[in-house]
């Protein structure tokens, strides 16, 4: 048994208002499976089935009848779905009657007007449609329309319908009328029928005397003409009658000439209105384009323009050509506006792509994408040069390029990677006040900000240009994508030269500030000018190297070819060499001046004033002091207090256990506080450097390449732990396990937190994370305490398991490679009998 179809639903009608007999188009859903399925259609309560034409299940065309209601719903009834509903309504306009000689905007059909001068004469029985043919009071019952349709299938209660049913009409309009009233109605119908038969004779009887008079006059004229034979003589009665008739005809023409002229004018006006209504899209398009441009709705403008171009682009109609020419003028102005916005700097990558797509859809001449790339290249070069000029001219105070308030380059890298994965942003570059930092250092940091902030978007714009992703579906259909790819292949060398110019400009600006002797003499005027600035020490060069290296890593993540970044690598090598030379030079000078500070006087503590001076004036010795005190605390607890207890017992002193216990507790408390202070100073920087290093270069665990080894951030963390090991070992070998186990625990806890914060890993990301965790765990195996082992296990458990034998084999190979490459560095973590060096 087939499932019943849903009832019809009318969702639209066009036009939505009009006079009776207006042709309308009805749209909706489930409007019938065919013409036979459509059994009912009413608009404003009037049955329109007689004029209904079923087009499809979503479209019906019909004419609106003279309904009683001015506004009502559109109800469609089908056999398969029954009566339906409507979400729209139709408004029936009832125009006022206009006389035949009255002025009107349109021509009035004369057929609908009764122009008879004698109202008593008979008229055609079909000229009027009485609203109450029975002539008695109507008493409508409560019979439902649906029930009547079931009782009288295929019939109608409308007496004007071809399928009129008298029973339906009586039930619907006179269900409450009495039998006597119905008898009166029958007599009225009989009288009405007799009047119809007598209608034609009544018109003849009413004008019978006129007919006789006309017949007598014609007979007299005929006799007169026969008697005198002057029907063709000038001035005769025949001629006079002809002249009278001609004058009557001329008078009639004159009378109706103005009326007929108004009819012709009304026809012309109506035709013009029809043209305007039919093609209102084109005539309104120039104003709509202007409004949408002001609102920024460029997509709407482009769609309207494409539609107008397809419809009227090749028109031969003069008025259409004129309007379309105005449309083209507005579109050309829009092209110029979009091109101006595209070349405007600064702008975001999203806006650049959007404007390029707009210009492509508007068929702009030239290559807007390449124009944008060229403009961005020149703008970045100018930003870099302005950075140098402003530092040279006004110094570092209050410097702010282009209103840029972003954080420093390396800090922004750490922040963006942290925010990208939803982590907390806590990495910051070491705070240095502007008046304490040399201008060359500030310049390099600011220059790196410019490069890291602008070059990635510049590179991504080129990649989008190469792969054709700058264009919409319209651009693909019109061939813009293939044209763009072809242009990109031809301009690869030009873009490569742009990148080379940017990297060379970066390197030359840094060389001019730090290594001016490496520049040719002719370029010193452009990139030099730092001679009167502060001479830098090795510590500042170290910070500069760190900044430049971060800039290089950020550019490497963009997959820029290594040959284009080779100049930056060469600069880093020269900076390292120069930093080493400056450090050695300053160290040698400091060593030469040591003799001037030594007085060779030894105090009670066994140290000279030179050592005391260095000890008190160097802030970096505070951690070494903590280690010395910790070593002394251990010595007190393990030897001094025991020796004192033995002496007290040997000499028979009693009650010293309480004193000894209180002393040990005090020393242990001091030892614990100092130990925690030292661990905080050494462990926190190492743990804090993991997150920014882990996500340097916009690294993403969900999208990374196959691991090739342990990354540099973990190696740097191990080197920092080795530095702590060396510092502790030089003071006390016994403190090494205690200190390193706590530092390893802190580092492991931070690694576990970072891994657990990652929402998802790719296959390569999981392998890379497992490799780094295992490398750190194996390297510090000698100093793992139970807490550290538990933390490493939790971190590894949070990673996806390796099911592939190839992945496990690759992990083992990379671990062996790591241990082999860092064998010399990791040797310090192995058990040894080497005694600490005493200073």
Automatic annotation (TrEMBL):
Role, per record: Component of the exocyst complex involved in the docking of exocytic vesicles with fusion sites on the plasma membrane.
Transmembrane segments: none
Domain IPT/TIG, residue spans: 8-90
Keywords, ordered alphabetically: Exocytosis, Protein transport, Transport
Annotated family: Belongs to the SEC5 family.
Pfam families: Sec5, TIG
Swiss-Prot/TrEMBL GO biological process terms: exocytosis; Golgi to plasma membrane transport; nervous system development; protein transport
Subunit record text: The exocyst complex is composed of EXOC1, EXOC2, EXOC3, EXOC4, EXOC5, EXOC6, EXOC7 and EXOC8. Interacts with EXOC3L1. Interacts with GNEFR/DELGEF; this interaction occurs only in the presence of magnesium or manganese and is stimulated by dCTP or GTP. Interacts with RALA and RALB. Interacts with ARL13B; regulates ARL13B localization to the cilium membrane.
Record-level GO cellular component terms: exocyst
UniProt entry tagged with the keyword Iron-sulfur: no
Domain Exocyst complex component EXOC2/Sec5 N-terminal stretches: 132-613, 621-829
Official protein name in the record: Exocyst complex component 2
Alphabetized CDD domains for the sequence: IPT_PCSR
């Amino acid at each position: 048994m087939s499932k019943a179809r849903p009832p019809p639903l009318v969702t639209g009608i066009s036009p939505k208002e009009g006079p009776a007999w207006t042709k309308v188009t009805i749209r909706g859903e489930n409007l019938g499976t065919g013409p036979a399925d459509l059994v009912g259609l009413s608009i404003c309560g009037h049955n329109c089935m007689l004029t209904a034409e079923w087009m499809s299940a979503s479209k019906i065309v019909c004419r609106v009848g003279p309904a009683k209601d001015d506004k009502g719903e559109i109800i469609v009834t089908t056999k398969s779905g029954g009566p339906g509903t409507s979400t729209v309504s139709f408004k029936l306009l009832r125009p006022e009657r206009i006389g035949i000689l009255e002025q009107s905007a349109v021509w009035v059909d004369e057929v609908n007007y009764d122009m008879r001068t004698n109202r008593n004469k008979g008229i055609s029985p079909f000229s009027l449609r009485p609203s109450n043919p029975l002539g008695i009071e109507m008493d409508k019952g409560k019979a439902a329309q649906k029930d009547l349709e079931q009782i009288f299938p295929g019939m109608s209660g409308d007496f004007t319908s071809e399928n009129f049913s008298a029973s339906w009409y009586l039930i619907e309009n006179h269900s409450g009328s009495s039998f006597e009233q119905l008898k009166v109605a029958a007599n009225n119908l009989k009288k009405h029928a007799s009047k119809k038969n007598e209608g034609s004779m009544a018109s003849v009887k009413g004008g019978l005397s006129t007919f006789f008079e006309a017949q007598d006059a014609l007979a007299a004229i005929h006799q007169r003409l026969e008697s005198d034979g002057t029907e063709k003589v000038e001035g005769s009665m025949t001629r006079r009658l002809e002249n009278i008739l001609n004058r009557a005809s001329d008078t009639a023409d004159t009378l109706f000439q103005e009326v007929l002229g108004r009819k012709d004018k009304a026809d012309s006006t109506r035709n013009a209105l029809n043209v305007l209504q039919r093609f209102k899209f084109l005539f309104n398009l120039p104003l709509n384009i202007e409004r949408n441009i002001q609102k920024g709705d460029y997509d709407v403008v482009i769609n309207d323009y494409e539609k107008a171009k397809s419809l009227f682009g090749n028109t031969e109609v003069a008025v259409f050509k004129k309007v379309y020419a105005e449309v083209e003028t507005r579109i050309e102005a829009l092209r110029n506006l979009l091109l101006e916005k595209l070349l405007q700097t600064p702008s975001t990558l999203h806006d650049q792509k959007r404007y390029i797509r707009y210009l492509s859809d508007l068929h702009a001449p030239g290559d807007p994408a390449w124009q944008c790339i060229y403009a961005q290249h020149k703008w970045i070069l100018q930003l870099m040069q302005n950075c140098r000029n402003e530092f040279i001219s006004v110094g570092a105070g209050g410097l702010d390029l282009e209103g840029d308030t972003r954080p420093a380059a390396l800090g922004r890298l750490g922040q963006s990677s942290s925010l990208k994965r939803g982590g907390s942003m806590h990495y910051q570059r070491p705070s240095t006040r502007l008046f304490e930092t040399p201008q060359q250092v500030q310049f390099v940091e600011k220059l790196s900000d410019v490069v890291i902030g602008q070059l990635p978007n510049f590179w991504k714009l080129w990649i989008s240009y190469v792969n054709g992703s700058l264009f919409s579906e319209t651009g693909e259909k019109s061939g813009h994508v293939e044209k763009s790819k072809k242009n990109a292949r031809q301009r690869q060398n030009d873009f490569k030269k742009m990148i080379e110019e940017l990297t060379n400009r970066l390197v030359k600006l840094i060389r001019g500030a730090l290594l001016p002797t490496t520049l040719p003499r002719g370029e010193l005027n452009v990139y030099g000018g730092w001679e009167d600035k502060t001479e830098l020490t090795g510590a500042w060069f170290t910070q500069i190297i760190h900044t430049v290296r971060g800039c290089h890593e950020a550019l490497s993540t963009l997959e820029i070819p290594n040959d284009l970044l080779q100049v930056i690598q060469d600069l880093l090598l020269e900076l390292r060499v120069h930093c080493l030379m400056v450090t050695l030079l300053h160290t040698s000078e400091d060593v030469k001046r040591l003799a001037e500070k030594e007085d060779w006087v030894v105090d009670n503590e066994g140290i000279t004033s030179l050592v005391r001076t260095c000890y008190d004036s160097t802030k970096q010795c505070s951690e070494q002091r903590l280690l010395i005190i910790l070593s002394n605390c251990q010595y007190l607890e393990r030897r001094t207090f025991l020796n004192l207890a033995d002496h007290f017992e040997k000499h028979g002193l009693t009650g010293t256990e309480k004193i000894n216990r209180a002393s040990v507790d005090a020393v242990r408390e001091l030892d614990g506080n100092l130990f925690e202070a030292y661990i905080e100073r050494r462990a926190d920087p190492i743990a804090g450097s993991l997150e920014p290093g882990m996500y340097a270069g916009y690294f993403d665990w969900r999208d990374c390449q196959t691991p090739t080894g342990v990354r540099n951030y973990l190696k740097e963390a191990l080197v920092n732990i080795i530095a702590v090991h060396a510092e502790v070992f030089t003071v006390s070998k016994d403190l090494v396990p205690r200190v390193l186990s706590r530092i390893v625990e802190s580092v492991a806890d931070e690694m576990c937190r970072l891994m657990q914060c990652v929402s998802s890993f790719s296959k390569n990301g999981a392998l890379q994370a497992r490799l780094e965790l295992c490398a750190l765990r194996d390297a510090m195996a000698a100093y793992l305490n139970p807490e550290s082992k538990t933390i490493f296990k939790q971190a590894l458990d949070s990673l996806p398991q390796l099911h592939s034998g190839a992945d496990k084999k690759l992990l083992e190979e990379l671990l062996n490679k790591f241990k082999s490459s860092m064998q010399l560095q990791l040797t310090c973590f192995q058990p040894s009998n080497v005694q600490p060096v005493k200073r």
